[in-house]
Amino acid sequence: MAKEKGLYRDAGLDVTLRPYTQTTRPVDDVLSGDADYSIASSSLLIDRLKGRPVVALAAILQSSPETLLALKKSPIKSIEDIRGRRIMTNRGRQNSYSYQALLSSKGISLSDVTLLPHSFDIEDLISGKTDLMVTDLSTDPYLLREKGIETIEFTSKDHGFDLYSDILFTTEEEIDSHPQRARLFLEASIHGWEYAFEHLDESVELILKKYNAQNRSRESLLFEAKALKRLAYDHNDRLGDITKERIRDIYTIYKVLGLSDAPMEGLDGLIYPASFKTSLQLTAKEKKFLRTHKIQAISTKRWAPFNYNIDSKGAKSSLSGISYDFWMEIVKNADMMMELNHADSWEDVLTAIEDKKADISLGAAITNEREEYAIFSKPYDTFDNVIATRSSVGYIKNLSALNGKRVAVGHGYTIEHELRKHYPKIEILPVDSTHDAIKALEEEKVFAVVGLLPVLSHTIHTSGYTDLKISGTTEFDFNIRLMLRDDYPELLSIVNKAIDMITKEEREAIFNRHMTIHYKSKVDYELIGQIFLVFTLIVALLFFRQRYLKRHNLELLRLSMTDKLTQLYNRSKLDESLLQQTRLYHRYQRDFSVLMIDIDHFKKINDTYGHLAGDRVLIQMSTALKVNLRLTDILGRWGGEEFMIICPETDEEGALRLAESLRNIIRDADFQGIGRLTCSFGVSTFHGDDDIISIIQRGDDALYEAKGAGRDQVIFR
After folding, report:
1. N or C: which end of the chain has fewer CB within 10 A?
2. Bridge pairing between strands 165-171 and 151-155
3. Angle CA(86)–CA(581)–CA(79) in degrees, nearest 5?
4. Is residue 590 domain-resident?
5. b vs e for 375-407, b when ≥16 Cβ sit within 10 Å of the residue's Cβ?
């Protein structure tokens, strides 16, 4: 679509597309100069570790579509059943490592199976010439379904090995010799993919007309397009994202598989520099706004580590801090004209925005009063409000313990409004800054200070107060946003887009520069040293007892069964548990039930509070479910915001009772930074004529019936 819609041409590039064939070797072709750019899988990491100077520009697919495909009627029901079977694969295929990870996670090596040359003909699977076929989830399963043939798929993502795919790459020489061309090619390619995913029907029609070398049907191409779109946006809303964290995880998998002994430092330089990120996609109205407006930003100078002035020999110098650095990233991403002004107090910042003497402030939270004259960006992070006291005060469980006591808070800060609203018995002393609040605490003018954890910790640490500490937490989080004058909606849209462009690496670098979390407590360091010494000796003994291969196989097994975010079982482990419960039923007639759980309006949470807040909701939801189950119940993340609970020895009545209990617990819980949430439940109980697919399908149907009935419901089918 980048070529057909003229995106390459508009960038001044003359691009020729060459079709991929069975003899194509993308890395060899690019390194030899036969091509300038190409597409590869995560095996590009292996090439880089071997010293080949490849550079990954963008991962179009955030999860690999590769799957091991078998017929449902075959005796293969789990990965363990693959031992001794025939697998049709192309040894030179760039994606070939993901299925090796699946097999290795169950202790199956390539010597335990028979590898056949790939014919790329699904008739060989149908006729029994092979037991399994390495293929793409987006193609052959649909073609078989068209023939009325049901399949079973074993995908790397569902079994804990989440690999990038369709990685657009080039060479170091291309970037060094033609940096402008590399940047323009990447931008046009990403925009082409974005256009294709936003116009699936148009893209399919174009393929049918000009690029349909495989003689695919319109329906199969549309199925593939939808599948690829899901994989492309699987982890976030930014197409093509590559992170060091994901690269490190993939490296670990490859190292465990024995595919490379090279140190991870060999991957330095693999990811295309962040300074060459794709530009913002702005509307004509937004571009005009930036051309015609010099943005007047305003900030206080006494809010470390978010904003603070750096003094040099008594003279004022530049502003620094978390909010300032985020703002400068936004300015850079949007190529914005900007002037930064300083205010003496937070009240002055609010007045400047209300009077429209300033256009934007660098850090704020939403309140009803401020929404009367201001609009707010999406949050760029969330922080805890905590309680600081003198070291002689013990642990403070909650804010109610401060009733009747004098507490210092920043005047006009969000936390002041929350305390006055929810804790009227607390005697509040408003002060101009956190520094003034901490000083009042040191001088024993107040019993406690309530404020943001990084601000209080930074102030205590840098002010040299040795007898103060963080003594407790509060239920109030601070979603930090940019606050804008309410007649600049174009600026709000620009800022939100610029926030989305800030990478994880850039965020981490900002926090590492400014976060100094300091907790004052009485610690027996001699005892800690003794414990640490004993612990170190135990770890060393265990380390030398375990053989290298066994240790890494255990790590691979852990990766294969655990969801990284929530630390619950993943889909692979749930499938395995369902199979085990099915076998127990058929042997001993032991009932079991399945609960499918979906968080209501989860997309709205991500859109309103940001993906970091969404992740925190998933983690807190996981904990809420886990602590209210029996030890025998099996809890896992089914995918996205959906969870599954497998309940052994549980009939319909027991499953419904558990679902109702969990529904009420979740509805009454207070989710950090979000408030109240609800979940919809689909419940099903295993019958004698059921299989794994049918019980899941009934539970899934019940779940969507519950959502259609208004959500926050339990439906049994």
Report:
1. C
2. unpaired
3. 20
4. yes
5. bbbbbbbbbbbbbbbbeebeebeebebbeeeeb
CATH number at residue 587: 3.30.70.270
Using the predicted structure, report yes or no on whether residue 236 has a pLDDT greater than 70.
no
**194 and 324: one domain?**
no
Structural domain contains residue 2: no
**Confidence (pTM):** 0.49
Average pLDDT over residues 18-34: 89
Q: Rounding to the nearest 10 degrees, give the CA dihedral for residues 74, 79, 83, 87.
A: 70
- pLDDT, residue 516, reads 46
- The amino acid that residue 642 corresponds to is E
Instruction: Please tell me the distance from the alpha carbon of residue 511 to that of residue 323, in angstroms, as a whole number.
Output: 10
Token pair recorded at residue 220:
């199969």
Residues facing 110 on adjacent strands = none
Q: What is the mean pLDDT of residues 97-122?
A: 82
pLDDT in tens, 663-705: 999 998 888 778 889 999 999 999 888 888 889 989 999 998 9
Residue 204 or residue 238, greater confidence? 204
17 inside domain: yes
Helix or strand or coil: residue 482?
Answer: strand
Domain count, the chain: 5
Token representation of residue 384: 């805890």
C-alpha distances in Å from residue 337, one per residue of 290, 292, 340, 354, 491: 7, 9, 10, 22, 12
Round to whole Å and give the CA distance between 383 and 612. Answer: 11
| CB-CB contact of 55 with 272 (8 Å) | yes
Range of the domain at 376: 283-522
* pLDDT given for residue 352 in this prediction: 95
Does 32 share its domain with 146? no
- Strand pairing class (86-89; 114-117): parallel
pLDDT value, residue 592: 93
Asked if residue 96 and residue 55 are part of one domain, the reply reads no
Q: 362 and 466 in contact (C-beta within 8 Å)?
A: no
236 and 258 both lie in a single domain: yes
Q: Tell me the per-residue pLDDT of 319-354, one tens digit each, with 9 for 90 and over.
A: 788 888 899 999 988 889 999 998 888 889 999 999
Q: Give the pLDDT band of residue 277 (cuts 50, 70, 90).
A: low
Neighbours of 591 (CB within 10 A): 18
- Domain membership of residue 334 (yes or no) is yes
CA 270/CA 246 separation, integer angstroms? 13
Structural domain ending residue among the three candidates 501, 522, 543 = 522
